[in-house]
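Lecture 7 notes: from sequence to structure.

We start with a single chain of 195 residues. Read the sequence below before looking at the structure.
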Amino acid sequence: MSIFIAMCFFSLSMSISPGPVNLTILSSGVNYGLKRAFPLVSGATIGFTFLLTAVGLGISNLVSQVPIFYELLRYAGTAYMSYIGYKIMVSRPEIEFKEEHLPRFRHGFLMQWLNPKAWIACLSGVSAFGLNSSRSMLLVFVCIYFLICYLSLAAWALLGSRMQFLTKVKNGMKVFNGVMGGSLILVAVYLLLSN
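Now the structure, written as tokens:
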């Protein structure tokens, strides 16, 4: 199997598998629709791509000089994802398109940098493919990952938009938002405790 196919499979498995960002995008798709979820999808994809590039260029070596960094990342990531989960849980079941409630690019971008799953994907991908020493292969991997990540996250938003029938079911959105927010909090706590 060529390294490019391996990179594609790695990118797909890490991008499409459920995680904090995917759950948030799914929830945004249900609550706001596909079009309004795309700033979050774009922010998460670009945020991840920047993180992957930074790790490939050696930020992980710099960060490893500060052992407390990963510990702070775990707690900050858990706190931020729990906050997002809480906001989803308590969101009003009525669909509101107020500007301040819509998912934003910056939220997706920031979530990736505070997401332990994203850091694990970046560190393991760069290590597995030996990208610390090859800038050209790093660029190829980043391009492959960008495309696959964008499509994967967009698929989660599309799935969410297809679940908008919940808006017509009595208490459907309230239950959905409670389950999604609670799941996000559980995932964040699990990631904190599993390391």
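The chain has one domain: 3-194. Keep this in mind for problem set 3.
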